[in-house]
Design a protein that fits this description.
577 residues, mainly beta, Triple-stranded beta-helix, 6% helix, 26% strand
Length: 577
């Protein structure tokens, strides 16, 4: 025991100090926590009177800085109104023979820090009818100092005055984001919505330290929403047609009694807004059995088996603008095949797709080889093919022929078909290496009316056509062999010029010709035809003559000749009857 007064000390009892009641009551001040240890329950007697049962408490007077134990042994009746709905215990020490604790009614604003709150009477919205239940959410129960401090954290009670909000005290929570300090106040801002049949709601603190309310389903038999992994601090349990929140409808949830949530009941943050569900269980069900959108890159090791339901496409791929729709890689990571942004299938290692070969025209069974066969190998193309433009063939060489042969069946033309020409079957027409065309059968079945430019007139570069009388104008008649000597012609007989007995004998000499009789020039036997021959240099008059060339290739040309002189190398023959 020291004799130095460190820190201006004050002892409850000093040496030779009188042991008064006041000094004795100071011995436990702020050492024993104040509060109601037992009893002090409320009962409704009427809308204006209540009864407070006997109880035990330790109460303090902060002004006198003392505390004392008070026990009542009988109930107490008090008048009460909706203006002063709180029942409180208050102790004010006086230096008198008798000191008693007061049992009072009060409004919320008049409650002092050292007062003990017993409870609160609840009046309907009109303020005249009191309920038979009471609000003990602020009751001053006894706790040790640590528990008392913790008990004050996140304590939920009704507001003052009563409204459709609730009041929550400040507190501290440990969350996945660390230590959270929650500010107390009245929540929610817009109030809790009204009930119809009845509803249970939960009050919880989210991971950011924000006070939230999750309303249940309105029902005549309501149940609270599942807690999941929410930090629930209280439930609000209200009946039908409730528009405000009473303290008696608030049920605190003790953290020490929390049951750890099961994994399937954990709630999702879902920051990417990918799920329509809010908990793990339903999210997994959504992935496994419902329509679902995967975002980002997903690598799947193992097999993927897709079995489509009836009437449903097994797989649909939709590409992004400017990107390939699909890429297939080999085991070494190199690209084997891809579908580009336009839907084109590109194969980096060949198109080894199998073909059906319905018409048995290919010698291969893969698309790649079949395309190469069409482009660069011998093959047979079956059935009719129509070309919009003329196909271009390469220049032929001595060793290669672009077209070996062309064979077409005989065409049966119809009135509705315009034919541009046909080639008979086989090798009737052949085009050789020089471009010459040879025809095995060049017979034609044409009549004069088929040839539109044929004429009986003497017109160049046209075909001769007899007129209605059988005559025509022409120069080239044919060729004839004849023998001549200087200035004269020997007599000749020819069956080609005579059809009756006798012979057509004629002799010619320079400048003259004898007359001859011939059946070839006579319409009937015995008719005499005069034959006049004009030699080179001899003048002749206009008329019809036969011009015979006597030099070079022998030719005869008939027609109408204007008067003139016979040219060298020719003779003119005129026949008259």
């Amino acid at each position: 025991m020291g004799s130095t007064n460190y820190g201006n000390q004050q002892l409850a009892f000093d040496f030779n100090e009188d042991a008064t009641g006041k000094l004795f009551n100071k011995t436990q001040y702020q050492l024993t926590p104040s509060g109601i240890y037992s009893g002090f329950t409320l009962s409704k007697l009427s809308d204006t009177y209540i009864s407070v049962s006997a109880g035990l408490c330790y109460i303090q007077d902060d002004t006198s800085q003392l505390g004392t134990r008070v026990e009542t042994t009988a109930s107490q009746t008090l008048p009460i109104t909706s203006v002063t709905p709180y029942i409180i215990l208050r102790f004010n020490w006086i230096d008198a023979l008798h000191n008693y604790m007061d049992i009072l009614v009060s409004d919320f604003a008049s409650i002092q820090a050292s007062d003990l709150i017993v409870g609160r009477a609840i009046y309907e919205n009109s303020g005249t009818t009191m309920l038979s239940t009471f609000d003990y959410s602020r009751k001053s129960l006894f706790y040790t100092n640590k528990i008392k401090t913790q008990n004050s954290y996140l304590r939920v009670s009704s507001t003052e005055p009563i409204s459709n909000q609730f009041s929550i005290s400040s507190g501290v929570l440990n969350s996945s984001k660390g230590n959270l300090i929650i500010s107390g106040g009245n929540y929610p801002v817009s109030g809790v919505s009204n009930t119809v049949n009845g509803r249970y709601d939960i009050i919880y603190i989210d991971e950011n330290g924000v006070v939230q309310v999750q309303e249940g389903i309105d029902s005549v038999s309501p149940v609270a929403p599942r807690y999941g992994n929410k930090k629930v601090v209280a439930e609000i349990r209200r009946g039908a047609l409730r528009t405000t929140v009473y303290g008696s409808e608030i049920f605190s949830v003790l953290a020490s009694f929390d049951v750890p949530p099961i994994t399937s009941d954990l709630f999702l943050l879902d920051s990417g807004n990918l799920f329509s569900s809010i908990d793990v269980e339903n999210a997994l069900q959504e992935i496994a059995g419902s329509n679902f959108v995967f975002k980002g890159l997903k690598t799947i090791q193992g097999n993927i088996f897709i079995e489509a339901s009836s009437g449903v496409v097994a797989e649909t791929l939709k590409g992004a603008a400017g990107q390939n729709i699909q890429v297939l890689k080999k085991s070494d990571g190199s690209v084997a095949q891809y579908i580009d942004t336009n839907g084109k299938l590109v194969n980096a290692c060949g198109t080894n797709l199998t073909i059906l070969d319905k018409y048995t025209v290919f010698t291969t069974d893969t698309v790649e080889d079949a395309i190469n066969q069409i482009a660069g190998e011998d093959m047979t193309i079956k059935a009719q093919k129509t070309f919009d433009t003329s196909p271009i063939l390469p220049v032929a060489t001595l060793s290669t022929n672009p077209i070996i042969k062309s064979q077409f069946d005989t065409h049966a033309s119809t009135a509705a078909t315009a034919s541009l020409g046909h080639v008979k079957s086989g090798t009737d027409i052949t085009v050789d290496a020089s471009g010459n065309v040879s025809v095995v059968d060049n017979s034609h079945n044409h009549i004069s009316s088929n040839i539109t430019d044929a004429t009986p007139s003497n017109t160049g570069n046209t075909i001769v056509k007899r007129d209605a009388g059988g005559a025509f104008q022409g120069h080239l008649v044919g060729t004839a062999d004849y023998a001549s000597n200087a200035g004269s012609a020997t007599s000749a007989s020819s069956a080609g010029y005579a059809t009756s007995a006798g012979s057509a004998n004629y002799a010619s000499s320079a400048g003259s010709a004898s007359s001859a009789t011939t059946a070839g020039y006579a319409g009937s036997a015995g008719t005499t035809a005069n034959l006049t021959v004009y030699t080179p240099g001899q003048a002749y008059s206009s008329g019809y003559y036969l011009n015979i060339a006597i030099t070079g290739h022998d030719t005869a040309q008939g027609g109408f000749w204007q008067a003139g002189t016979v040219a060298n190398g020719s003779i003119l023959v005129r026949v008259s009857v």
